Amino acid sequence: MEVVLDNAKSPMAATQMQALLGAMFGQMEIPANITLINTGDTGTTGATPTSPMAGMMSQQIGIMPLMMMSLVSSILLTRIFPKKDAVTNRGRFSALGKQLVYAVVFSLLAAMTAVILLNTLVGAGAPFWTTTVFLWFAGFAVMALFLGAFNVAMPFGALVALYAFLLAMMTAALPQEMLPAFWAEWVYPWTPQHMIGDGIRDILYRGADLMPRGSSGLLAIGGTGLALLILSGFIPERKAKSESGDAPSPNTAAAVPA
């Protein structure tokens, strides 16, 4: 029996399957050769296999901090440059443009922080600039989605954030085949975590350079966020009741009965 396990698909699943299959074939007395591919040795001089722990911990050490920093930065930018203060469409789009410019800077800082955490705390040995550029692109795409959702309506943004965090927690670490049916069919295809996880593992274990796996999905997420931002620019903010002329004038004397 020849068994090939792809470590880049999921180091956690590959490690578990290697132990389980070895024990199962041993009990059944079936000769089996279990091969683990994509261990991180790209064939360069002095290259050593990347530890499976790097892929297992990439969610907690790299992906979740990136997602959290993207969410917090998006909320801060919508408060610092609120489009509600603008009366015209031009003013609203000016505020949205400032949010995007600062999102580029914040996403770069978040990406560099995630790479430093991966290499120092886990010892992933991720190539700094290749991983930083990918996570920069991923962070900006996620931030654009959050900015677009929060600018359309605060409850809508909260709903998107709830979906991205509560429902998509484990999609970065587990492959689609190991998830329950609901998560595999309805949650996994739309979550940025698994796209970021695919890209990190593609860099760590397959030696990918530019545009690793997951980039096309992140491009769609970023495009959706930009579309929501443009839509939010045409949505006027509600005026306060006191500005609508309904409040009584302070010069009006109150009627006093004789």
Would you kindly provide a brief summary of this structure?
With 258 residues, the protein is mostly helical.
Structural commentary:
There is one protein chain. With 258 residues, this protein is mainly alpha-helical. Helix content is 62%, strand content 4%. The chain is built from eight helices and two strands; from the N terminus they run βαβααααααα. Helix 2 packs across helix 7 and helix 4 packs parallel to helix 8. It starts with a strand and ends in a 25-residue tail after the last helix. The C terminus is likely disordered.
Salient structural properties:
single chain, 258 residues, mainly alpha, two-stranded parallel sheet, 8 helices, 2 strands, 62% helix, elongated, disordered C terminus
Q: Count the strands? A: 2
Q: Provide the succession of SSEs.
A: EHEHHHHHHH
Largest sheet strand order:
1-2
By DSSP (H or I, 4+ residues per run), the number of helices equals: 8
Mean pLDDT: 81
Q: Give the % helix.
A: 55-70%
Termini Cα gap: 105 Å
3D shape: elongated
List the helices and strands and how they pair.
Layout: E1 2-6, H1 11-27, E2 33-37, H2 52-80, H3 89-122, H4 128-152, H5 154-167, H6 181-187, H7 192-206, H8 215-233
Parallel strand pairs: 1-2
